Amino acid sequence: NETITKMQKRLKKHLDRERYEHTLGVMYTAGALAMRYGSDLEQALTAGLLHDCAKCIPGEKKIRMCDKYHLHVSEVELANPSLLHARLGAFLAAKRYHVDDKTVINAIACHTTGRPEMTLLDKIIYIADYIEPGRQELPNMAVVRRLAFEDIDECLYRILKDSLVYLNSRGIPIDPMTEKTYLYYKKYLG
Ligand code: DGI
Ligand code: FE
Ligand code: FE
Ligand code: FE
To answer: Helices marked H in 51-151 — which ranges?
Structure first.
């Protein structure tokens, strides 16, 4: 696919080697999940490829860029600018990579915190980000990887829950959207 190859070349210059390899892992894992669940393959590959396109921008610069482009920065994001890479990445996917598909943009925007009522593509990217083969082993990884291809909602809920446990255990401040997403899915799946 020529468009994806072009995006890949540009993206490579904006990421370090490790992040670029993670990105390719997410792209192919998202592709596999799209095949499993009958989601559009091109959308999954594009969102997977670009989901972390803003990840390697230094924190201060992330904040300056959000100010410049009028993207809202919350208190928690100001204190933890890494959180901004999702929404800033979504913006840059449109601006620098010329993605005009809102489904793809939204999946990039919510890939770190999730959101209530996630679309199939949102779930695919959120999960692919967590389970891609290069991701260092996380608790319950084997179960989560199997669940991803068995029951996408159960898998999503499991990741949301494990992530909150991890953040709380390390005393990392929870973004309100992370909490909101967890509570939303707990109601249906918990
Ligand atoms: O960008 P990746 O590392 O591939 O993955 P990601 O975008 O899912 O980001 C994961 C990181 O984000 C991880 O170090 C934990 C952090 N994170 C996720 N939810 C929250 C959070 N950090 C804070 N402060 N608050 C959250 O709610
Ligand atoms: Fe990310
Ligand atoms: Fe994630
Ligand atoms: Fe990622």
So the answer is: 59-68, 75-79, 84-95, 102-109, 120-131, 141-150
Q: Find the 95 Cα to ligand 3 centroid distance in Å.
A: 23
* pLDDT of residue 12 exceeding 80: yes
**Ligand 2 centroid, distance to 125 Cα (angstroms):** 10
Could you tell me the pLDDT band of residue 190, with boundaries at 50, 70 and 90? Answer: confident
CA of residue 94 to ligand 2 center, whole Å = 17
Report the CATH number that the domain containing residue 108 is assigned in CATH.
Answer: 1.10.3210.10
Query: What is the band of 2 on the pLDDT scale with cuts at 50, 70, 90?
Result: confident
Tokens 């992330």 locate to: 62
Instruction: Find the residues whose C-beta lies inside 6 A of ligand 1.
Output: 22, 52, 55, 80, 83, 86, 111-113, 129, 167, 172-175, 178
d(CA 104, CA 85): 15
Nearest-ligand number for the alpha carbon of 48: 4
**pLDDT tens, 20-51?**
999 999 999 999 999 999 999 999 999 999 99
* Count of domains for the chain: 1
